[in-house]
Write a structure and sequence with these properties.
22 strands; 8-stranded mixed beta sheet; 3 domains; FAD/NAD(P)-binding domain; alpha+beta; D-Amino Acid Oxidase, Chain A, domain 2; single chain; 10-stranded mixed beta sheet
Length: 514
């Protein structure tokens, strides 16, 4: 509600007009809003739900070049993604961390020499990198989770990230640069101004039902799977619209399948690959699937068949294989992939690259199609460069050397912050404070702003609202991070939901309602 009120007060007046309205608060929309705000434009960013509630919080949570895309000859996309990997490691070291992958060689699949060449090409495209180069591996079955027939493979490095938190970092970046941001605010109407110099947008608060009409010079459609809906609302001509294929990717989380912090890349008999990734200390995440869907993307859910598929895929390689009853969390996201040709290619073969389509009639509107989590910053920069003629007053691009809000200011900063927070909250378990720093980075210190001072003069984080969640942290999430529901708190602001019971969730829901 607060974001909607601010939006209405700032731009809901007859004589007010923003430069840019970004519709869609996933990773691409948040990245574009941040980039545009830093170039001196007045920006409004809205999403009909929570920030990153759909595809952008349902990825495989990797910052990577995409080794498998080399087979599809998508060298430009892989090279750009590897360059972005380097940039994001510097921009957000608190949430982007290196991860070693073991690619298991199966003699029935791709030949060893072919994978070796792919690895060398991957290293070459990465250029100068802070990550180790790839190397051949021999698996020691005395301490390996793999079945005995798998004796060799490769080691290479990419990065992992909390995707939902990466979205939030970019929303915060946009707001810090002056953007007006409003979650749970849906665009319910879009019409060109009579002279074609901009748009009138009707925005509706999803909680109160209140509406606000604002004017803007340009609209960016960054709604991902819902892009066609906004294109149609704007009345775009057919030549400016993309043909989208909606492909569902599903993941499961199970208790840890093996010791060690390495991930595995497994080649499957159907030509696909899946990952097993250490997750939240005590779990393994497995994914992803590729299943084309129709209907409302918001209705996409993982199916029992997909759970079985992922479990059986792992059982081909691991001695300790999961079954459906082991699953503690499951999620599905919908990738909006642009169809090329007659659309006969398998969903796994459709390009993950992005395309930007700028329409000047009936008024300036830029539609974003496709894209990967890893390349969101490059996409945002390209989007704003595309609008150079619309906004000649724009300043130069800036995000390639900028840190995200939670990034520590120097080496050792997070260690010092941990010591400070532990001293400020001596009764809080060290694991909780470690989680604060892993989630919020340098901004974890803001939790102190929501603490109270006890009779002994020390800060108190308040009562436990649920396992591992103190009132001070919850108030921080509500006031600083737009959290409004239990799902926001437990799955997108944190992953505490992995440890909570249904009773705990109901208690939090009631607390938030009050």
């Amino acid at each position: 509600m607060a974001g909607f009120r601010q939006l209405h007060e700032r731009f809901g007046q007859e004589d007010a007009c923003s430069d840019l309205l970004v519709i869609g608060g996933g990773i691409n929309g948040a990245g574009i809003a941040a980039d545009a705000s830093g170039r001196g434009l007045s920006v409004v960013l809205v999403d009909g739900d929570d920030w990153g509630h759909a595809t952008s919080s349902a990825s495989t949570k990797l910052i990577h070049g995409g080794l498998r895309y080399l087979e599809q000859w998508q060298f430009r996309m892989v090279r750009e993604s590897l360059q972005e990997r380097r940039i994001l490691m510097e921009a957000a070291p608190h949430i982007v961390e290196p991860l070693e992958f073991h690619l298991v060689h199966s003699p029935e699949m791709r030949p060893f020499w072919m994978i070796w060449l792919g690895m060398k090409l991957y290293d070459t495209l990465a250029g100068s990198s802070a990550l180790p180069a790839s190397s051949a591996l021999r698996f020691n079955h005395e301490n390996s989770a793999l079945k005995p027939q798998y004796t060799k493979g490769f080691s290479y490095f990419d990065c992992r990230v909390d995707d939902a938190r990466l979205v939030l970092e970019n929303v915060k970046q946009a707001q810090s640069r002056g953007a007006c941001v409003a979650s749970r605010t849906k665009c319910t109407g879009l019409s060109a101004l009579p002279d074609g110099t901009g748009w009138k947008a009707e925005l509706t608060c999803q909680q109160s039902g209140q509406t606000s009409s604002i004017k803007t010079k340009c609209v960016i459609n960054a709604t991902g799977p819902w892009a066609s809906y906004i294109d149609d609302m704007a009345g775009l001509n057919a030549e400016h619209k993309a043909r989208l294929r909606l492909v569902k990717g599903s993941h499961i989380v199970v208790p840890a399948l093996y010791e060690g912090d390495q991930a595995y890349l497994l080649q499957l008999r159907d030509g696909r690959i899946i990952f097993t990734i250490p997750y939240q200390d005590n779990f393994t995440m497995i994914g992803t699937t590729d299943e084309e869907i129709g209907g409302d993307p918001g209705d996409a859910r993982i199916s029992a068949a997909e759970v079985t598929y992922l479990c059986e895929a792992v059982s081909e390689y691991f001695t300790n294989a999961p079954v459906a009853s082991d699953v503690v969390w499951q999620f599905a996201g919908v990738r909006p992939l642009e169809q090329s040709g007659d659309g006969s290619e398998n969903a796994s073969q459709v390009s993950r690259d992005y395309r930007l389509s700028l329409a000047s009639t009936p008024a300036p509107l830029l539609s974003v199609y496709g894209g990967k989590l890893t390349s969101y910053r490059a996409l945002a920069e390209a989007a704003m460069d595309t609008l150079g003629d619309v906004f000649p007053q724009m300043t130069e691009s800036w995000t390639s050397t900028a840190s995200l809000p939670g990034a520590p200011k120097g080496e050792g900063t997070l260690v010092l912050l941990k010591e400070s927070l532990q001293a400020a909250f001596p009764v809080i378990e060290p694991g909780v404070i470690s989680r604060w720093l892993a989630n919020y980075g340098a901004q974890a210190v803001k939790v102190m702003d929501y603490a109270s001072k006890g009779s002994n003069g020390l800060l108190e984080a308040g009562p436990l609202v649920g396992p591992g969640l103190y009132k001070a942290e919850l108030d921080f999430l509500i006031n600083e991070e737009w959290a409004e529901t239990a799902e926001d708190v437990l799955w997108r602001r944190s992953k505490l939901g992995l440890h909570w019971t249904d009773t705990d969730v109901l208690a939090l829901t009631e607390y938030l309602r009050q």
